Amino acid sequence: MNTRIAALLTLLCIPALQASAQTAVPRLVTRGETVQLHADGRPFLLLAGELGNSTASDPATLAPIWPRLRAAGLNTVLAPVYWELVEPVEAAFDFSTVDTLLAGARRHDLRLVLLWFGSWKNSMSTYAPSWVKRDPARFPRARTSDGSPLDILTPFAPENVEADARAFAALMRHLASVDAERHTVLMVQVENEVGMIPEARDRSPAAESAWWSPVPHALLDRLSAPGPPLHPALATAWAAMGNRTHGTWPEVFGTDERAEELFMAWHFAGYVERVAAAGKERLPLPMFVNAALVRPGRKPGEYPSAGPLPHLVDLWKTAAPSIDFLAPDIYFPNFVEWARAYDLPRQPFFVPEAGYAGSSTAVADALFAFGALDAIGFSPFSIEDLPSDALLAAAYEALASIEGLVTERQGTGPRIAGFRPPVAYDESFDESPQEFVLGDYLFRVSFVDPWTPREAQAPETHGGLALALSDDTFLVVGSGVTITFEPLDAAAGRAFIDRAEEGRYVDGAWVPGRRLNGDQTHQGRHLRLPPGTVAMQLVRLYAVR
Predict the structure, then answer these.
(1) Structure pTM?
(2) Do 333 and 439 fall into the same domain?
(3) Among 413, 445, 468, which residue terminates a domain?
(4) Which of 384, 413, 442 is the last residue of a domain?
(5) I need a labelling partner for 500 at 20 to 30 A (CA). Which of 45, 62, 119, 260 fits?
(6) How many Å apart are CA 446 and CA 455, to the nearest integer?
(7) Is 89 helix (H, G, I), strand (E, B) or coil?
(8) Which residues neighbour 195 within 8 Å (Cβ) at sequence distance 6 or greater?
(9) Which domain holds residue 337?
(10) What is the pLDDT of residues 28-71, one digit of tens each?
């Protein structure tokens, strides 16, 4: 073909390809050993924040917040959609709050992840419509062992799940109508922190009947099928009763609170599946559920039990196939421990509630999540309360500028790394240096800054992310870390810094700032990213025997 004609045909095809990318439904795509979120035909990192529970219910409250969110470096906002406002009268839907969210996000060049506050929010049913709340005969409640009603819709009542599923399907149908071209909404969370409390299981009449009924074949098949191993907690409960392949819930799992939690997890997940599946029929956006986590030493019933917790993953994934992934709401200090527990095979990693806005560890947590766990996103809660001087904005700005470099390296082996000191639940932490490999070099990271008095720094807030640009050139983003290098090949000799420089990425190109081959690198001995700021540096190494 004539090259001029070929070029002309290519130019003619570009608008069609661009339109196709813009109208493609956001989806999850496997890349190597990880799963990424794609939007507009490319990988997308959610540099996000979640609004407080009530903020999205009032347009006037929300209006002045939008500019602040954009100024803070966000590209995505997690926002609740309330069943009680969407369907104030049965079968009469009002999507004005949803349309307000869409308009505000678009006006400020932001994307949305919608949170369906349907049957449950933090275990309770406080966002169900009044016509549901006030008719317990038609919409039954969960009950305690003494028969007292709870402010929790029971997952064992068909009327409950059918009403929720109809409303959620209506929401997704509305999005398919008003957001089909823009796809401002990237994902949807189905319900919020599902769980049973203050007892391990529901004692309503329908729940009691289900408790004494046979365990469903789908779960029994998962227990006995070859393939991925069961979580130890589930395997232990099943083995304790003789690995039975038929029987009632007490016969297969026992009668203690752990068995009761398994029972409730299966039925909560099945309920959520009905809701999610009804919505996906209208618009197949990625959908997830979030989990309220467990404090050490708590038993089922002493926390929101039976939600999508790590020890219940097998039940949730089996009973709710329409849910694409499970996500943790991490408010405890041991972020690294909980994050690794949700770094599950064949699903993306995302933290919809990464502590409160303004947390001193947010930068380290975010960079660790994107670098070490190939996260698709990070999102502190109550983001409208983010202090104006929070370092998270600088971290998001840096991540936005290198988004393509990050997503290109996720899931492809040792080309990206994230690092921060692990912190325990009691807030003690291990500041020991950490090592990882990138390119031809071993990196050793120290979290105690050598040039800042020990009492004037907080190493538990230090951390960073490193990318291999080639075998000898690396980009590092972070705060409060000092890095030294060694060649992987001992015969290569010692590693030295050819050049180190501050800078930034603009439109995919490195724009250098100060050359740091003097005091800032201790005359070439190390790379230093000072505490109290978010720095980006490029370093090129060489080895001498």
Answers:
(1) 0.93
(2) no
(3) 413
(4) 413
(5) 45
(6) 16
(7) strand
(8) 120, 122, 123, 268, 292, 303, 304, 305, 306, 307
(9) 3-413
(10) 999 998 999 999 999 999 999 999 999 999 999 999 999 999 99
